[in-house]
Amino acid sequence: MPGDFISQTDNFTTNLVPNPSYAQWNQNNAAFSVYFGTNDINSLSTKVDSSSTTDYTPYAVKAMASLFTTLDVLYTAGARRFLLFNMSPLDRAPSHLDASGVPNASIASFVSAWNDELNLTAQNFGQGHPSSSITLVDAHAAFTVVLDNPAGYNAPNASCWNNDGKSCLWYDVLHPGQAIHASLAKAVDRACIQSGLYSSGAREAQDASATVTARSTVTQKSILLTPSSTSAAGRGRNGGTIVLGMGLGLMWLVLGTCL
Q: What integer pLDDT is reported at residue 185 of this predicted model?
């Protein structure tokens, strides 16, 4: 789906609500996955830096209002299960390193504020939307565990990039390579199991590289996986994942396993 998250959602509600014969989704057999924010932080950080602002919370609050207003549109359309990703350590992407290889502190602060607001707003959304569930995947931890140990993933360092996706941890100056995608896939796998998103009879959880702390109960309306490392459309016959939002395209392939 081209365009931003709002236009993608408009596209979805126009073409798939009510559900057509070729995509018989409903609130029980579909999960809506949103990886949102990388481009927003990239574009906003330039404006924020130019204004010498050090408090990024107002920007994060505004972004979360837009995100969850759009999730409310999906909820009204019948969506009930949401899989959301917190922000990766964008400050460690090659595009945000200084000449000495030091990560951008402003971006790091922005990411922290973003993730804090995502946690808070997700809890509020769950409380106000009966029968909904939100699973947060700790993308920040999934990236960090790889970036902190490049040698363990056969990379010379944590900042090099190569379009082969294998010899370095980054595919280009912003997008991750295969090792980080694999770590993120494990985090998704674990999150799906811990939150109950997997169908009954799902396989046992594999050990995840990223540390994810589950906080949920059977009766809880909003199921949250709270990050421990930071302060802060597909279709299927029997079920599948509706993928909305701008994000890491290669990683979406794993999401169908949640159902």
A: 93
